[in-house]
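Reader question, answered in our methods column.
A reader sent in the components of a multi-part assembly and asked whether the whole thing could be modeled at once rather than chain by chain. We filled in our standard form and ran it. Here is what they sent:
COMPLEX SIZE: two components
ENTRIES:
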Amino acid sequence: MDGIHDLGGRQGFGTIRYAPGAPAFHAAWEKRVNALYGMAVRRGIFNMDEYRHAIERMPARYYLSASYYERSLTSLLTLCVEKGIVSREELEHLAQGTVPLSEPSAPGRTNLPDRETFQRGDRVRVKNDFFAGHVRMPGYIRGKPGIVVSESPRYPFPDAHAHGVEAADEPTFDVAFRTEDLWPNSADSALVHVGVFQSYLEREK
Amino acid sequence: MNTQSRPSQVAPVENRVAAIEAVFEQRGMEPKPFIETMTHAAEEEWVPRNGGRVVAKAWTDPAFRQRLFANGKDAVAELGLSMPAHHRHLVALENTETVHNVIVCTLCSCTAFTIIGLPPDWYKDLDYRARAVRESRTVLREMGLDLPPEIEIRVWDTTADTRYMVIPVQPPETVGWPEDRLIDIVTKESMIGVARL
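And here is the structure of the entire assembly that came back:
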């Protein structure tokens, strides 16, 4: 999903609001949200991929203006409504006001065909692939070349796991991309590593 | 589902939290003790000192260091440190005199929080997420880490179930210190990679 959450490389943002020792929480309700969505995950109401995607499905204007834990809360509420734990009307009655939720999801997909296994040092390219559902391929690596630096264990395939679709678990490959390839003449020189699912990758040439 | 047309009617965020907590309560899920347990864990158990123990051990015990780089999750388990189910793999990233590693999650906020602590506010902010991959040297300089050009920057975007932690370079004046004392000099920022020690 080419949503506003896919922030890597976007321009126009400001100075990092940084202070060493900065806290994770600023208000008591944030701790409750953090616990309540964790409880829902532990109880199997939804999984982490569904949780992430429900945040991504927030209307862009709301996503950008909401605080981090308000986004967590919106995901939790959206999924509890979608899973039939509570109706939106009951939530709004209890909250004494309207309750903003995320937009409906596009369908998921299973693993992509022609998956290859790669070794450290292999030259790979991220497929030029567009998908409206949940995906863990940041837009800035789409179609870009890189070099495999390591392989992970097999993980649930997020494009399926966020949508209740059956799929095989897949390894991811940590791929090193040169910023010169990602944003030619328009980035600080560095290596950027991304954990890329097998389905998203093809062998270079 | 369009929520933009009625912003003045939106329930305060605290009300929305209380509403879902009440629903969980009604469904017999007993959220209150869970909130207490989770909050205690977030504040008292998932602390950067955990990662500090890992770093200090890696500095002082070459065999542990080797095991840490081979399989991070197994190695930290030796110190009694656990990771949640969806953190399936831990990769330790070694800083050197010529390499600097820094971690980000451009898509959300992923971190090895049981090891290095929950992500601080700036890490979850839009600005860090957008800029850390493309303007890494500039961003680090803004954050007080002005790296000379001969140090290569390696950015790690956390996009799957792998979690990362940076093993900072040990300050030379601390070589020979006991492990306990070394733990105290390791900061959360140095394990995310926005600071060097």
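What stands out: Chain B touches chain A through 79 residues (CB under 8 Å). Residues 2-7 of chain B have pLDDT under 50 and may be disordered.
Send us your own complexes using the same form.
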